[in-house]
Amino acid sequence: PLDLAHRVPEGVRPGDDVVVLVHGFMATAGVFRPMRRALEERARAKVASFSHAPGEGVERIAKKLHRLVEKLPEGVRLHLVGHSLGGLVARYYVQELGGAAKVTQTISIASPFFGTKVAHLFPLLVGKDLHRESEVLARLRARAHEHEVPHLSLLAEADRVVVPETSAMFPVGEVVSFRDRGHNSLLYDPRSIDLIVERVRGVDPCPKSRRLHTI
């Protein structure tokens, strides 16, 4: 059965790096196992996660993320890492639910901020949020410059879920493009994991800069 319980790490103290991992559609928090291990062992971060039911929209999942964050002590360095739909959820929490006051940075992995041409393949609510004319996505893009929360977008040039793959580029922050990776393989690529570990250990200080790197 799908475990929807919040997994909040024990022994979290003010000043700790806490990473919340938000998975995408038709997945569970288990997809982050290699990344979670690297964050715990190499970044010395505390890692929290939760699973959401298939078909839930961005706003509803973001409210669950909000409830998880409320369980954390004040003063932690909070990093949100979301894959696909999860990256949209992370920015929605920051921009629409007051998360900007608590979040140190957000990182999206193949998240369709400009929608995807294959949105019709997803269930109604999710498909509506992922459509290229989505009101939710339009609002995220329009308000992207209102917050000083740094963002890193990872995109996969062989992505067949986010079409075109450039839709995964958030309007602000740094973009790193992976030539030979697909939508899900970014979760397990040593280079993408290394990059996320690096950013948790030291946040990019220029949230409004726009830089594009291809590796």
> Structural class of the helices, strands and pairings?
alpha/beta
Q: Largest sheet, order of strands side by side?
A: 2-1-3-4-5-6-7
Taken as a percent bin, the fraction of beta residues is: 15-25%
Note the main sheet. Answer: 7 strands, parallel
Ends: how far apart? Answer: 38 Å
Mean pLDDT: 90
Low-confidence stretches: none
The global form is globular
Order of helices and strands: EHEHEHEHHEEHE
In short:
The protein is α/β, with parallel strands linked by helices and 215 residues long. It has 6 helices and 7 strands.
What does this structure look like?
Helix 2 (58-70) crosses helix 3. It contains six helices and seven strands. The chain has 215 residues and is an alpha/beta fold. The protein has a seven-stranded parallel sheet, with helices on both faces. The longest helix has 13 residues, at 58-70. It is 29% helix and 20% strand. Strand 3 (77-83), helix 3 and strand 4 form a beta-alpha-beta unit. The relative contact order is 0.15.
